[in-house]
Amino acid sequence: MSGITVTRAHLADAALAVVVGALVLTTAVGGALVDYALVAAGCGALAFHRAAPRAVLAVATVSGAAHVLHAQPGTLAALPVIGAVHTAARVGHRGLAGAAAGIFLAAHLAAGPGTQEVLEKSALLAGWFLCAVVTGLADRNWQAYLRQTEQRAAEAERTREEAALRRAGEERLRIARELHDSLTHSISIVKLQAGVAVHLARKRGEEVPPALLAIQEASGEAMRELRATLEVLRTDEPGGDPALLVERARAAGLAAELAVTGDARPLPATVDRAVYRIVQEALTNAARHAGQAQISVELAYGQEDVTVRVDDDGNAVPDRPPVPGIGLTGMRERVTALGGTLHAGPRAEGGFSVRAHLPLGETG
How many CB atoms lie within 10 A of CB 209? Predict the structure, then answer.
């Protein structure tokens, strides 16, 4: 394989060269071999007008002028030069286009000086060349207008996205304030009163009721979860470093380790956020339910995807699969929204495993 990709544009350019060549050859019927060679050179060059417009203009002009001087053909012989002039003007080479048109017209006049027919044909060709330059410039301006329109549309879309993100951030902060002002105070009172009741019972030498201890423990857990939720709501960053989560888990007494495989690199914002939240939720669940377990976190970077795996050797067993809570449900929704897959459940050898496979393409 040569590695050259043939596109529709290449086929269209080749077809243009063939059609123009067929038309010009009608003016060279019965001519010498050199005339056919000049026609083939000028028309064949048109097939490359997108890649090398200046080179095509030079080849078409030189071969066309030589053909006119040698064979004095009809006006159709100017078609390759007209096409090259149009292309040159379209890409911004107006001066070269005008010079090429002037050279060809000079050759046409020199081929039959002084005759009325040559003057009329030269005037006709001058009009054709003028139209070629004008349409080339018009096409250039139209393409520039389309590009500007696309840029304005992209800028407007980006502005709308930024405004939506800003409104979402403001709404998160509002919810965080409401939760802090209402729930935090109420839970703090419950926790404080339960703690006082436990302290007084122990001070009097009485047995602390199990229900009271459960209230104290549940209120403390609720306060920790609420603080974590408020921290998430107040976080403006799109994601975070999973390594920091593992370090915090170790600082809290968990036996957690992080392993990174593949070519670690910055991820798209949506994927980066998902990876961070998956590791965060998996570590939180392990801390709550796995007991004194070993926890391994693995990030595997592929060419077009990233895989997150969090395993522990805790108390979960396949015979008693856990009921999915809000955390696992939210994790699955986040992964599914990105076009990924999630497996979360007990391992055959004991413990719990979370494995998320995320494609790196932006999905919104």
Answer: 12
- Residue 235 pLDDT: 62
Residue closest to 344 by CA, chosen among 255, 333, 249: 333
Tell me the sheet residues that pair with 298.
259, 309
Distance CA 281, CA 267 (A): 19
DSSP state of 321: P
How far, in Å, CA of 65 to CA of 108, rounded?
Answer: 7
Phi (first) and psi of residue 327, to 5 degrees: -65, -50
Residue 201 φ/ψ region, left for φ over 0, alpha for ψ in the -120 to 50 degree band, beta for the rest: alpha
Structure tokens at 133: 């330059």
Summarised one tens digit per residue, pLDDT across range 265-295 is 888 888 888 898 899 888 888 877 766 788 9
Local structure of 300: helix, strand or coil: strand
DSSP state of 314: S
Among the listed ranges 35-39, 71-75, 112-116, 267-271, which one has the minimum average pLDDT value?
Answer: 112-116
Check if the beta carbon of residue 137 is closer than 8 Å to that of residue 90: yes
**pTM of the entire predicted model:** 0.47
Percent of the chain with pLDDT over 70: 90
Contacts 24+ apart (CB under 8 A), 92-99: 92/140, 93/53, 93/54, 93/57, 94/133, 94/137, 96/54, 96/57, 97/57, 97/132, 97/133, 97/136, 98/133
- Contact (Cβ atoms closer than 8 angstroms) between residue 343 and residue 259: no
Q: Residue 251 has which token pair?
A: 């600082």
CA distance 282 to 263: 23
Please return the burial class of 329, using the count of CB atoms within 10 Å of its CB with bins 0-12, 13-18 and 19+: exposed
Residue 215 is predicted with a pLDDT of 86
